Amino acid sequence: MDLRSIECFLRVAETLHFGRAAEELHLSQPALSQRIRTLERDVGAVLLERNRRGVRLTAAGRAFLAPARASIAHGEQAVEQAQRAARGLHGRLRLGFTVVASYTALPQAVQEFRSRYPEVVVDLTEINSPAVEDALDRGEIDLGVLHPPLERARLHTMALPAEPLLLAVPVGHRLAAESSVAFADLAGESMLVPPRSVGPVLFDKLLACFREAGVEPRVVQEATPVTTVAGLVAAGAGIGFVSRGVADSTRPGVVFREVPAAPAIPMAAAWLPPGPEPTGRRFLELLGAHLGRS
């Protein structure tokens, strides 16, 4: 039983005239009659009676009329829903992101996306960068905002603006009075660093910066995420690098200083091919616009 045959039945039921119904449906009368016969066979009952005086609905036809109209309406709704989903206007977006990403323009982009596309349900998951890769690889999320380079070559990426690193030091620290700090100034300082397992490339870049300055960093504690680093600095546990977004959020008892030689945190959006889904493409456009403005 197909919607076209049901539509044919409804047109005959409304006009009670095979000729007019066939004309409105752009069908020949024999083709329309064949459609009705096929529908009646599928239903298992005669729906329309035709005689010299015209066409009338049988009891089965009258019972079939309202559900038939509803099925056409539901079919049209389904088509419209599918078309909206294909354009990224309806559906679901499962987004995974890192803590660093949450301190960029990402939250504002999500808020605007939800406002602009209310028919799209957005599921948010904050995890570290390797976990974002894992979730993408397993199909648990549709789109991720994370830190390249990626371990899984099959993931596709779109580069986003990198996040500069700033040095977080306690108020009253000797470096708090400086407007800019060099790696050589960090000799002997108690350093808080993220575990290498979370971001090996950035970890190695930071270590290289220390060594190029002739400094062997004195690591007193591994800490992640960067918000924890800021909290530990406030508690006097040491000093450490945080992203500019975290620094901009401010924290009592902590000041942030530029270290010109410090590497930036690379940022990218990633997805599993052949995606991203239409909702993901719309979100990437919006996110790119927000990060460009910021």
Q: Could you give the topology of this structure?
A:
Elements: H1 3-15, H2 18-25, H3 29-43, E1 48-51, E2 54-57, H4 59-86, E3 91-97, H5 99-102, H6 106-116, E4 120-126, H7 129-137, E5 143-146, E6 156-163, E7 165-170, E8 190-193, H8 200-212, E9 218-222, H9 226-234, E10 239-243, H10 244-248, E11 254-258, E12 265-271, H11 278-293
Parallel strand pairs: 3-4, 3-5, 8-9, 8-10
Antiparallel strand pairs: 1-2, 5-12, 6-12, 7-10, 7-11
Helix pairs in contact: 1-2, 1-3, 1-4, 2-3, 6-11
Verbal overview:
The chain folds into three domains: 3-86, Winged helix-like DNA-binding domain superfamily/Winged helix DNA-binding domain (Arc Repressor Mutant, subunit A), CATH 1.10.10.10; 91-162 and 267-293, D-Maltodextrin-Binding Protein, domain 2, CATH 3.40.190; 165-263, Periplasmic binding protein-like II (D-Maltodextrin-Binding Protein, domain 2, 3-Layer(aba) Sandwich), CATH 3.40.190. The model has no long low-confidence stretch (mean pLDDT 91). It has eleven helices and twelve strands. Helix 1 crosses helix 4. The two termini are 55 Å apart. The longest helix is centred in the first third of the chain and has 28 residues, at 59-86. It is 45% helix and 22% strand. Strand 1 (48-51) and strand 2 (54-57) form a beta hairpin. The chain is rod-shaped, with a radius of gyration of 32 Å. The chain has 294 residues and is α/β, with parallel strands linked by helices.
Q: What descriptive keywords fit this protein?
A:
single chain; 294 residues; alpha/beta; Arc Repressor Mutant, subunit A; D-Maltodextrin-Binding Protein, domain 2; 3 domains; five-stranded mixed sheet; 11 helices; rod-shaped
